[in-house]
Amino acid sequence: MTNLKKNFVPVTQPYLPPLDEFRPYLEDIWDRKWVTNNGWYHQQLEKELCDYLGVEHLSLFSNGTLALITALQALKITGEVITTPFSFVATSHALHWNGIRPVFVDIDPISLNLDPERIEAAITPQTTALLPVHVYANPCDVERIEAIADTYGLRVIYDAAHAFGVRVNDRSVLNYGDMSVLSFHGTKVFNTFEGGAIVCRDEKTKRRIDNLKNFGFVDETTVVAPGINGKMNEVQAAFGLLQLKHMGEINEKRARIDERYREAFKNVQGIELHHVPTHCTKNYAYFPILVKPDFPISRDDLYDELRTKEVAARRYFYPLISEFPMYRGLPSAGQHNLPVATAASRQVLCLPIFPALAEQDQERIIETVLECAWRNRRAS
Ligand SMILES: *Cc1c(COP(=O)(O)O)cnc(C)c1O
Fold this sequence. Notes:
InterPro entries: DegT/StrS_aminotransferase (IPR000653), PyrdxlP-dep_Trfase (IPR015424), PyrdxlP-dep_Trfase_major (IPR015421), PyrdxlP-dep_Trfase_small (IPR015422)
Strand order of the largest sheet: 1-9-8-5-4-2-3
Oligomer: single chain
Bound molecules: pyridoxal-5'-phosphate
EC number: 2.6.1.-
Protein name: Aminotransferase
Family: Belongs to the DegT/DnrJ/EryC1 family.
Pfam families: DegT_DnrJ_EryC1
Number of strands: 12
């Protein structure tokens, strides 16, 4: 507790409700003495999340990465899977842990999501599935992706780690594809400290997923698959239920910061804002900006400048997944195959956005960026 710097602004911070509100949940768990394995709060959170999100079948996990790994297991995905290099590294790691080869396809320059126009060229006889990501909670082109998957008989698993609560055409984005995977990590819009979930289409698949996250047990003595331990415990689930009660306030506070940044940066030369199409709702999970070549200083210099003002912006996603040592040897990982993702990864900077971000800190961030924008042109 001693090294918490007073003026330091992190890029994100978990929303934590007043501690007193959580005490009754803990007392109840203490009374029940049921701490994990599909306990009361676990069952309740699955129900309430289905209602809140507008989905029918949801299985909780101890984190998003195990949920991704298990989703691939549940669908028996093998061979090659087409995915985006512009994501958090867990997206490809989940493939790696299943012995599946990631095939990287470039992204769309506006949405920064997997470019549907480039998917077909990457399909081979080994391709079994697509693993797109709704980056920054901006939905992928779900209709185009569905059409391609149908044409080629491919499964679709969405990494929806960012996309909690997002709707497309007034329908949950989580209802597209065969499965969607959420993360409830402390850095995400809705958190259970660590946590995640798989959203699937039918009860039978949910049962298979529930077995897989519990070592493959279907009853006391029967194990039907080499499952894993991916179960969410009761304290996390109870915290999730409490967190859900605060989602209105969380969204409102995030929306206000988003609005303030947009207003401040809308006419700044060299700063490109990320826009969500109007048929989609937003959850304000991130505030990415692209620092273009006509901004007076580079993205990294702006990052450093913010650092000196004790503001931790993050270069999400830099490096690209395809640049990490375990992936860069893949034929699809070369920069010539991924020019748009490579450029975005060199230009993107996520500014702090979280419910408790103080007004004067927002001001400090805005002033720092604007002050850089007014500097003399960068010599090039
Ligand atoms: C956070 C995140 C994950 C991993 O989720 P965890 O709950 O941290 O395991 C996977 N994919 C993306 C895109 C993420 O942002």
